[in-house]
Request: fold
Amino acid sequence: MKTSILFTLIVVSFLTASCTQQEKIETQIAWDTWGVPHITATTTEELFFAQGWAQMHNHANLVLELYGSSRGKGAQYWGQEKFENDMLIHTLGFDQLADDWAEIQDPEIKAIYTSFIKGMNAYAAAHPEAIADKNKVVLPLTTKDMNMHGLYLIFTRFIGGKDLGRVQQWPDMGSNTYAIAPKRSASGNAMLVQNPHLPWWREFLFFESHLNLNGKNMYGSIPVGLPGIVIGFNENLGWSHTDNTIDNADTYELELEDGGYLLDGERKEFEVLSKVIKIKQEDGTMLDQEVELMKTVHGPVVNKTEDKVLALRMVALDRPNMFLQWWRMINSSTFDEFEEALEMAQIPFWNVMYADKQGEIFYLFNGLVPKRTTDAWDYWDRVIPGGKSADLWTEVHDYTDLPKVKNPVGGWLQNANDPPWTCTIPTILKPEDYPGYMAPQYMSFRPQRSVRMLIEDESITFDELVEYKLSTRLEFADRILDDLFAAVDASNSKKAKEAKKVLENWDREANADSKGMLLFYTWALKFDVWRSANYTEQWSMDSPNTTPDGIADTDRAVQLLEQAAIEVETNFGSLDTDWGDYYRINYNGINLPANGIDGSLGVFRVVWPGGADDSHMYVGGGDSWVGIIEFGDKVRAKVLLSYGNATQKDSPHNGDQLELFSKKELRDAWFTKAEVASNTARTEVITENGFREKK
Reply:
C-alpha cells in the first residue's frame, strides 16, 4: 500500500513538473541558416510580437519606407518624388478608412496588430544602428499604420490596380498553383504547389516564417510589413493564391456641368474635402500644398479634365478583417474548418487552391464579385461611360454563388491566372451557369502548358511535381514551330533557313544554357503572341488547351525570322547564344545567369524582365515564393524565396537564395522540431524589452 502511494506521488510530482516545465517554455526565435525565423510561443500575443521583431530584423528599413509611404506622408519624409503616391492615398480616403476599420475590427485581429507593431517598435528601440537616419522619422509605428499599409497594398495594387494603371509594367502579373489528389499522386498523398509571381521590389516582397503556437506548426509567407501567413501550410492542410480574373472595381467617366457632375441627366454636387500635403524641400524646409479631393456617389475622383472626371468604385471597403480570415485559414485542421474561414468573405481577391492530409483538393474562384445589372463581361471591362445610376452596384455575390470545384474526377486542379472554367480539362465549371460578368473566357499559353504537364502524367511523384514547377518549356514553341518550319521550307530565305537549323536543335526551353531561346524570343516579340489575327485557327472554348494554332501570314512570319536572325547575329555574334548569357539576374550586387521568361510564351516558370541594356536583359519579377508540399504522415516540403528573406544591406540573406534560383533548385522547408534544431544558426529568447541572443 505504501509502495502504491509512493508511486502515485512520484507520478503526480512528475506530471506537475512536466506541466510546469511546459508552462515555462520561453518564446523564442530560432534563426536558420537561410535567415528564416522559426518562432515558438505559447500565446498569440508573444507569437506576433516575435514575428514583428523578426520582420524588422530582416527588413527594418524596407518596413519603415513602406509604412511611411502608406501613411500618405512620403513627401513629408523624403521629398517631392513621393507626392503623387501621397495624393493617391488621400484621394482614396485611406486615412479615414483606417480609423473606421479600427472601430469595427474583430478584437482578435486588433490584438494581433497590437502585438505585431509592439514587436517592430521594440526591435527599432533595441537596434537603432540598423535603421537609416532618413527612415527614423517614421518611428514609432502604430496599428493605424498596419491598417493603412494593408489598404494600400490590397486596394491600389490588386483590387484597383488595373483601373488605376498601376500594374501595366508587369508583363505577366499573376501566379501558378496545382492541387494533386491521391489518385494522381504516385505516393497516394495529396500535393500542393504554391507559386505567386510578383515584382522583386518594395511592397511585393515576401517574408518567410515558421510559426509554432502551442505545438501547432504553421509555415509560409506574407508580404513584408504584414502579420501572419497568407500563403501557407500546416501539418494537415495548405493553400495557395493566384490572381484571378475577377472584376471588382469599376471606373466611371462622368460629364461635368456647372461645377457638378451628371447622374441620369441631373446635376449633382461633388463631395469636396481640402487636404494639406507637406513636401520636404531639398534644403530641409517644408512646403504646404493644399489639394482638393472630390468624390461622387460612384467613389473618389481619380482623374479630372475640363469637362469630365473619372470616379473609381471598389469592393471590400466594408471588410476590415482580411488578415483575421488568413489567420483562421492557417489555424484550420480540416476542410470544413478551412471552408468556414473562407465563408467569412473578408478576402476580396485571389483564387484559392487547397489540398490536405485527408486527400481532399479544392479550387475556389474567391473574392467579392459585384451584383451587376448588365450581364456581360465586356460591358464592365472598360471605363464605363456616362452617369447611369443603373450602373451603380451596391451588393456582392455570396460565397455560395462563386465558381468552385472539390475533388474532381480527373484528380487534379490547376490555375495559372486563367478564368475558373479551365481549372480542369475536360471542363467541369461552365460559363453559362454563372452571370456573364463573373469571369471572361480565354486560356493563354501558360495555363495550357500547365494543363499539358498534368494530363501527360497519370502518376505524379513529388520530384516530378518539382520538375513541372520549374519547367521552362515553351508551349508556344511546341504549338507554332512546325508551322514556322514549313513556312521557311517553302521560302527562298537563306537567313531564315539558317535560323531554322538553330531552332531545330534548340531544346525549346528557356534554361540558362538553352541555345536558340534568344533567337526564338526575338522572333516571338516581333510576331506578337497575343494577336489573334496571327493564327489560322482562333482560340476556342471547345478546345481551350490546343488553340490557337497555325500561322495566318506565313510570308510575314518568315520575314520576321530573318529580321530576328540578323539582330541576334549582329548584337551577339552568334544565333545560338546561350539564353543565360543574355538574360541575367542582377540583384543586390549579385549577377547570375537567369532562366525562364514571362508566361506569354507558355513558360510555367515565370521570370519576367524588368529592364535591359544593349547586351543584356535583367529579371524584374516573377517566381518569388515557391512551395511544393506533400501531405503524408509527415509533411514534406520544398521551398524557395527567390531573392532571399532579408533586404537589410548588411544581411547575408539579402539575395542568398538567388544561386539556387539560377540553378533551378529548391531547398527543404525545415518544419519539424528536429529539422529546425539541426539547422539553427542562432536562437533569441524573449525578454521584457524584446529578444536577446541565447548563449
